[in-house]
């Protein structure tokens, strides 16, 4: 552990035991993964800081005008640009910039336990699905996923190559769902509204990936189905034994229903 991370560790232990995987607090990206292909994750959106300098969170489009993300992504930087349909986030010819109408997060979100780390962004304009622009809605998981089932995470967060510099190209990694105790043993609080993901084999999400959905592929229509939302993890992402804790989307379908936000239920 280098001095920089040690300082951050001490700083954060005094505030919270969880290390949220977004950029404003600390550098957030995929470790141990590969570069995604343009159009591979057509639901995936990136959140850019208001000055355009940095990407710091992800999210997923669930219908024509709503994006699902993590509460802490909204709480810390309420007004940002959002884009979709990009692979290289700096490439201006790819994808669309979306205008936010409003955003809010779960009223019982607790930044200390990171319980209810879920939020929504409403868009000004309706965004139709469009294969030519690499835009497609994700479905939402309705059933419990078995242990060892693989899910796919993606993000522009930090990689194992750098502790400070995030990549321009979207990265992706496949990770297994594991027993909650494996995250708990790591000092990460967990109950059944969260999912523990990762084998601790240096594949992980990281700072900058927060809010992005972890997905599986529908067998029926090839759409992506969102299982979880990247929330927090071990201090040094991608380190041996580091895992992540994700918001379990299935636990929040009633919440979406109560807000009259529509979504597509998992097709299979
Ligand atoms: C931007 O993306 C387009 C579409 O994928 C590609 O043709 C072009 O080469 C990219 N430009 C740069 C500078 O990478
Ligand atoms: C999970 O833990 C939080 C914090 O203790 C609690 O508020 C919530 O009710 C728990 N969820 C369930 C489903 O038990
Ligand atoms: C959702 O729709 C129902 C029925 O139209 C309405 O009674 C309720 O107030 C709405 N809730 C919200 C949060 O808009």
TrEMBL record:
Signal sequence extent:
1-18
Q: Which InterPro entries match?
A: Peptidase_S1_PA, Peptidase_S1_PA_chymotrypsin, Peptidase_S1A, Ser/Thr_Proteases_Immune/Dev, Trypsin_dom, TRYPSIN_HIS, TRYPSIN_SER
- One example GO MF annotation: serine-type endopeptidase activity
What SMART domains does the entry give? Tryp_SPc (SM00020)
Keywords recorded for this protein, A-Z = Disulfide bond, Glycoprotein, Hydrolase, Protease, Secreted, Serine protease, Signal
Start and end of every Peptidase S1 domain? 30-261
* UniProt record, GO biological process: proteolysis
Predominant localisation class: secreted
List locations, semicolon-separated.
Secreted
Q: Cellular component GO terms, alphabetically?
A: extracellular region
SUPFAM superfamilies, per the entry: Trypsin-like serine proteases
Gene3D superfamilies the record matches? Trypsin-like serine proteases
Recorded hits in PANTHER family, A to Z, give: TRYPTASE-RELATED
The name on file for this protein is Peptidase S1 domain-containing protein
- Say which species the protein is native to: Acrasis kona
């Amino acid at each position: 552990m280098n001095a920089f991370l040690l300082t951050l560790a001490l700083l954060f232990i005094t505030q919270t035991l969880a290390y949220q995987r977004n950029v404003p607090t600390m550098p957030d990206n995929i470790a141990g993964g590969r570069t995604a292909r343009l159009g591979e994750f057509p639901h995936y959106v990136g959140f850019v800081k208001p000055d355009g300098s940095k990407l710091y969170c992800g999210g997923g489009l669930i219908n024509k005008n709503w994006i699902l993300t993590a509460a802490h992504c909204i709480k810390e930087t309420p007004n940002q640009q959002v884009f979709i349909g990009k692979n290289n986030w700096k490439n201006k010819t790819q994808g669309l910039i979306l205008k936010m109408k409003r955003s809010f997060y779960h009223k019982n979100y607790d930044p200390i336990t990171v319980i209810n780390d879920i939020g929504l962004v409403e868009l000004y304009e309706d965004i139709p699905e469009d294969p030519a622009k690499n835009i497609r809605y994700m479905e939402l998981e309705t059933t419990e996923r078995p242990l060892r089932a693989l899910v796919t995470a993606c993000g522009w967060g930090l990689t194992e190559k750098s502790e400070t510099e995030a990549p321009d190209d979207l990265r992706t990694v496949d990770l297994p769902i594991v027993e909650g105790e494996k995250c708990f043993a790591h000092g990460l609080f967990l109950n059944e509204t969260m999912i523990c993901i990762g084998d601790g084999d240096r594949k992980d999400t990281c700072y900058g990936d927060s809010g992005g959905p972890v997905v599986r592929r529908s067998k029926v229509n090839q759409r992506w189905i969102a299982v979880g939302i990247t929330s927090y993890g071990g201090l040094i992402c991608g380190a041996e034994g580091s895992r992540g804790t994700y918001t379990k989307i299935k636990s929040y379908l009633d919440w979406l229903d109560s807000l009259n936000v529509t979504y597509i239920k998992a097709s299979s």
